[in-house]
Amino acid sequence: MLKKGTKLYSILTGTCPRCHSESMYENKNPYIVTETMHMHDTCSHCGLRYKMEPNFFFGAMYVSYALAVAVGVAAFIISFVFVGCTVKEAFITIIAALVVLMPWIVRMSRNIYINFFIAYKDDAIASKNA
Length: 130
What we know:
InterPro entries: DUF983. The chain is an all-alpha fold.
């Protein structure tokens, strides 16, 4: 079970990294491609600005690259080693996996990146209302 208050909870659920009370995204489904990158400006519970500075999420490209490599390696190992595909079929599997998982990779990389900089605070909601 994911425990509220952990970075892993915020990363996997896409919730505000400070209060874990609401989704950072306008639409929780990353597969509505026209809305994959649309985020709220601030958290309505604790007031955290998600885009702390212009182009803040450009750094998420590095995280996205690492996730894409991990997905590619996993797809290759599963298809080549466990399923027994040829090398050509394994590379086609990698491309298919990356295309299908790209919206998820984009969201997950943003979630991971913002959690590098923002810590969870138990009293985040109370301090905004005080």
